[in-house]
Design brief:
The chain is α+β, with helices and mostly antiparallel strands. It has one domain: Nucleoside Triphosphate Pyrophosphohydrolase, CATH 3.90.79. Helix content is 24%, strand content 30%. It is built from six helices and eleven strands. The strands form two sheets. Strands 1, 2, 3, 4, 7, 8, 9, 10 and 11 form a nine-stranded mixed sheet that branches. A two-stranded antiparallel ribbon has the order 5-6. The radius of gyration is 18 Å and the shape is globular.
Length: 236
């Protein structure tokens, strides 16, 4: 490497951090009510986390600001997101809608209700809004935030939402993003290749869903990120 190349490496622009959202769909199984979550395997050709098992999710799109939801965002989530740094009311709602759109695109499951008013949907929402439907964020619970560590091919500031499976309709359908979609328990994820943040979410989800936490807008939300090469955990 020449001195010029070395200097170029030092001055290379940092990887941009894009806003994103993830949806953890959950349900209970069997008489003991074991918690299951919907996960899928990212394709091996993916630039971001290939062959890892993750929840549906993806990047915030400008169209997510323009689509009119069928109902307001869950008030508990609204209050929690108000404390989320860099997240105003419009972005809070748009992120919830991102989670809903990405879940539909990646799994075929739709969290929707009849649209309150007829409206022309943006192109990225056209299939979702067929039959007079609109995204319904009323049951999305905001539970976690994480920023992808430096050095990855892509970096995201991801907000994690959770919603019960009965809030969604449709049949599971693998996509170009997620394959091998299935409902899994915490025990069944032990041998799956999971990102660190996904392991944390799965380990914490049961506690987050307890009424004392899920119904409390003042409940602090964990925020994972890295600073000066060290992993950090704050609470928003």
């Amino acid at each position: 490497m020449t001195p010029a190349d070395s200097q170029s490496e030092k001055t290379k622009a940092p990887q941009p951090i894009r806003d994103a959202a993830t949806l953890i769909l959950y349900r209970r199984r069997g008489r003991d009510g074991r918690l299951e979550v919907l996960m899928g395997e990212r394709h091996g050709a993916s630039a971001f986390m290939p062959n890892r098992y993750v929840f549906p999710g993806g990047r915030l799109d400008l169209a997510d600001y323009k689509i009119r939801p069928a109902a307001p965002l869950n008030p508990v989530s609204t209050a929690r997101l108000a404390r989320c740094k860099g997240t105003g009311p419009r972005k809070a709602l748009a992120l919830a809608l991102t989670a809903i759109r990405e879940t539909f695109e990646e799994s075929g499951l739709r969290l929707a209700a009849p649209a309150s008013k007829p409206a022309l949907a943006p192109a990225s929402w056209a299939a979702f809004c067929a039959d007079g439907l609109a995204p319904d964020p009323a049951r999305l619970l905001y539970v976690c935030r994480a920023i992808t560590p430096p050095g990855r091919p892509r970096r995201f500031d991801a907000r994690f939402f959770a919603a019960p499976a009965e809030a969604a309709t449709g049949a599971l359908c693998p996509s170009s993003e997620l394959d091998k979609l299935s409902w899994v328990t915490r025990e069944e994820t032990q041998n799956l290749p999971l990102p660190n943040i996904t392991q944390f979410v799965i380990a914490s989800l049961e506690d987050w869903l307890r009424p004392a936490s899920a119904d409390d807008p003042a409940c602090r939300v964990p925020f994972h990120y890295m600073r000066h090469g060290q992993r950090r955990l704050d609470w928003e």
